[in-house]
Design goal:
The protein is of the alpha/beta class. Helices cover about 30% and strands about 25% of the residues.
C-alpha cells in the first residue's frame, strides 16, 4: 500500500465505523476492480468505499493539485461488513466486504458458446446507515480462451512506468506529485507490448505490489499512453509494522500466487514474463519456471540497477530451454523478441 494509505488506514477504518453507527456515512460506491475468466470460470473482485469527488487528471495539473488528488484517493473510507448481490447468467451470489471494503468470488461456469464480453450485475444490499450511490451497477466480464497460444504477464513499477521503486523518497514524491497523465512510461513500452500482444490478439495481465487505491491511476495511465490493456492484479493491503514504511513493498509472495493462478487458469498458454531487476522479479520468475517449465515462453528483465552474478546466473541457467533477455530499454527487448520469438 502507498505510504499515505498505510498511515491513515486505522483512522479511516475506525472513522467509517463511527460514521455508520451514527448515521453520518456518505453514499457508498461500488467499484469493480477485476472481472475476467475463461470458458470454465470467472473471477470478480470489487470494493465498497465512501463516494468521493475526484478531479479528472490532466497534463496541466500542478504538483499541489496532484497531491490533493492523492489525499482524496486515500481519504475515501473503506466500507466493511456490507453485502452485495452478484447476478451473472442464472447465478446469484451474496458477497461480504472485508475490513478494506474488498469482496471477491470465483464462479465455475459452463458456457459452450463463442467467447464474448458478458455482462454481470451488482446490487448493494442497503442496511442501517448504508445508502448506495447507485443501488445497481452493470459491468463487463472479459473472457479469454484457454487455448490462447501466447500470453503476457508484466510487472508495472519500473517495468512499464518509471517509479524508482527501490528509492522510497523518490517513489513517494512521484506518487503524490504526479498523475496518470504526467507519470512517465519507459520509452518504447507501448510499441513493444503491442508487438507481443499482436495488437490485442494475445491476452496481457499486469501483476504489481501496488495497492488497489492506485487501480484507477494505472488504468488511466495505460489508456493515455496507448499501452495494451488487460486485467490489473494488485496487492490486497495487510498492515504490519514490518511493511508500513514501504511503498509498494513488503512481501511479494502475492505476485507468485497471482501468476501461478494465471498459469493454472490458462494451462495451454505459453507466457512471456516481463519485469525488472530492481526488486524480486528475477527470483520470482525463476520460481515460476520451476513450477511451470512448459508454460514459460520467454523472460525479459529490464536492468535498472546492477544485479549480483548469483541472482543472474540462477535465472540464466534456464536460457538453454527458455530465452532469458536482460535488457536496458524496450527497443532492445523488441529487437530480441523479433529475432527469437515466434508470435
Amino acid at each position: 500500500m502507498n505510504l499515505i494509505g498505510w498511515i491513515t488506514f486505522p483512522f479511516r477504518y475506525s472513522f467509517s465505523k463511527l460514521k455508520r453507527k451514527f448515521g453520518k456515512l456518505d453514499l457508498v460506491r461500488m467499484e469493480i476492480l477485476l472481472a475476467y475468466g475463461n470458458e470454465n470460470g470467472i473471477f470478480i473482485k470489487g470494493r465498497l468505499v465512501e463516494a468521493y469527488k475526484q478531479s479528472k487528471p490532466s497534463a496541466q495539473k500542478t504538483a499541489f493539485q496532484n497531491f490533493i488528488a492523492t489525499l482524496r484517493r486515500y481519504a475515501g473510507n473503506s466500507i466493511s461488513d456490507v453485502q452485495v448481490k452478484l447476478q451473472f447468467l442464472h447465478i446469484e451470489q451474496l458477497l461480504m466486504s472485508n475490513v478494506e471494503g474488498l469482496f471477491e468470488t470465483k464462479l465455475p461456469i459452463s458456457i459452450t458458446d463463442q467467447l464474448s464480453n458478458d455482462y454481470a450485475k451488482l446490487t448493494l444490499i442497503e442496511d442501517e446507515g448504508i445508502v448506495a450511490e447507485n443501488i445497481t451497477i452493470k459491468f463487463k466480464i472479459t473472457r479469454y480462451t484457454t487455448n490462447s497460444p501466447i500470453g503476457i504477464i508484466s510487472d508495472i513499477d519500473d517495468t512499464v512506468i518509471v517509479s524508482h521503486a527501490t528509492t522510497l523518497g523518490r517513489k513517494l514524491w512521484l506518487s503524490i506529485s504526479k498523475n496518470a497523465y504526467t507519470r512517465r512510461p519507459f520509452p518504447g513500452v507501448s510499441t513493444f507490448y503491442k508487438y507481443l500482444t499482436n495488437d490485442g490478439k494475445n491476452p496481457i495481465f499486469y501483476v504489481s505490489s501496488s495497492d488497489w487505491n492506485l487501480f484507477e491511476l494505472i488504468q488511466d495511465f495505460l489508456s493515455y499512453r496507448e499501452i495494451p490493456k488487460g486485467p490489473i492484479l494488485l496487492k490486497d493491503p495487510h498492515v504490519t509494522l514490518k511493511n508500513i514504511w514501504k511503498s509498494g513493498g513488503g512481501s511479494h509472495e502475492h505476485k507468485l500466487e497471482k501468476i501461478s493462478h494465471l498459469m493454472n487458469l490458462f494451462p495451454n498458454t505459453k507466457f512471456i514474463l516481463i519485469g525488472d531487476s530492481g526488486q524480486h522479479d528475477p527470483e520470482l520468475y525463476t520460481k515460476i519456471i520451476e513450477r511451470f517449465p512448459e508454460q514459460v515462453k520467454a523472460v525479459y528483465i529490464r536492468r535498472i540497477k546492477k544485479v549480483d552474478k548469483e541472482r543472474e546466473d540462477r535465472l540464466n541457467s534456464y536460457n538453454h530451454t527458455i530465452p532469458v533477455a536482460w535488457v536496458t530499454n524496450s527497443s532492445e527487448a523488441l529487437s530480441h523478441a523479433k529475432s527469437f520469438l515466434e508470435l
